[in-house]
């Protein structure tokens, strides 16, 4: 509830590494200026990161009239991180170095009906094995695996409590994965994964309060408030997709009517298209990705039905995003995930106009709306970042007398 | 954007005084246990509060086997705080001692058409003069005056940017007030005032994330996240009243359609009643307070129209509050302000049932919904708390070499 001095120390450690990754090589003096921390605090945190081999000393620069300053840079090969994006229609796994470059990727499609937990675990285990083999990294260098799974998750117990699109209830996903994967495992959902990716590497880095709007099969909002992720008291904040936009409107799988998701999630966009032109060739029944791709091509070709379908969707989105602007008064709203990536600039343009029609003047004036600029899968990147944060969080324990191992590491990593 | 060490020191100072006010007398050891701060930090902060005469030493208690422990208590007569609640239909001013007991109160009615800024300033100045005279406190002991004004406010410049119910735009309210009032002035809006009152003295004290739902002429949500008030990047967060509940629904004075406020603000409740029974004797056209009071009496007398009108209102409220539960995942939602106070338990019961129909299971299970238990006007109390926070914020400056005066104190207080 309240931030302890250890929380603050961990947050500062994140902040310093984030800055080093963004601007390597850099000096302790530059880091102090960029983070607002004292030089002494920065020096201590840099020392910890050097001990962990996450960063290295890379030489000196002259300072005007003073002693040469030591420079540090991220030690890209000091470890590997794995991010797992379990989505409704696919599993994607990426392996990153410590500069968060993608070294290997594996994709597995999931057809409708393949969503049993054991099947999903099989896909994930195969893909994780594949990326480690592709990259040729030693197992001991994998610092952790972050797993993103849709819906409501209990990150402490590793249980997927409710994944509405699969009707999963209380699936002990990390326990199941731990039978196949020996690295430390961390779990959260795609809202929070893509938000953390924007905080570390994207449009929210170094900015004030930000909201990351995830537009995929499901939709939601990652909340970056006061420099960190707002999780709520039971890690389920951000369920914007299940806020009411149209009282008594379309039935949602959550049981409520008129949820935002039923109008702007990929299946909702298909309904928008069907209501506009039931016989449209753009519509690929039972195939969300094909329909969204067809819409994107249609917009590029100035197809009037595609343009109208995107405008109708943007009208719903604009009202829903204006709610976020009015409630959170953020500095930036980032549109992320595969639907936002596919519909891109044309969607962004329509959304900006629609938000301006619905939001209050004062918070609207303070808010910028942008597309995610993260070039790779932001959910994989964010999931890998959870593993990075996990590794940084254990620094205190590691340097203390008693070494603790992460709760989910059932066996020692192969070496 | 990021919390500096000075912000953290100020927040800790609030936390310690809050705890002393809640549980006087108390020891430094108890304060350390209750706040999670180190004993050394508590001792420093207690020393500052003693220097300010906000608290006093009041004796010793035995500790099992150890030295007697010094006890401190709030110094109720160490200063006075004034809270001003400028509402759409009245101005209320209360004067508090440092234990936040009400020592004097002045109310001024505002009839429709009396809402010109100069008229409002006249009412406030008269009422402030009245409470100081009633309480017989010396001007020098008034630490500050907190002013709550509806709508969007710039608390740094003291400008009421937009008060929708009066059509105020960019009114320099604190400059106007400073011509009549010589004490340090602080300004914010009723959402944030009642939220801060709950944080210091009400249902949110010592709890995790909380949302304070204000139900009056206008409606909004005060957001208590991570132990403090979430303001957003331009102090306009919490505008829940202007989030869309019914796309293309009732026209709102903000220009949007279907805002929450148009269904659950006092004028919206009058529309609900009129839609149900246009000729109802409960309806007092052009008189919100009389209508809400009649509804409350009707519910107590089991009048079917009154019961149905409250149920209809609770249905809208339940969907809107479920949005807050799904987005913020709070530990507690507090219903505050005069409409909530008037409709009380019957409204609370209906709202709880309606929220349960709309919210997701996991955040719903973590959330308690309660009525504000603050016995006096929570907006006056919260406004006075802004003045208290202002006085505590200047501690650093006061003990430093250069004494700074609050920006809005134009002349020295009379002595
Ligand atoms: Zn829903
Ligand atoms: Zn409105």
Automatic annotation (TrEMBL), chains A, B:
Protein name per its UniProtKB record: ROK family transcriptional regulator
Upper taxonomic lineage: Bacteria, Bacillati, Actinomycetota, Actinomycetes, Kitasatosporales
Family: Belongs to the ROK (NagC/XylR) family.
Pfam families cross-referenced by the UniProt entry: ROK
Organism name: Streptomyces osmaniensis
InterPro entries in the record: ROK (IPR000600), ROK_cs (IPR049874)
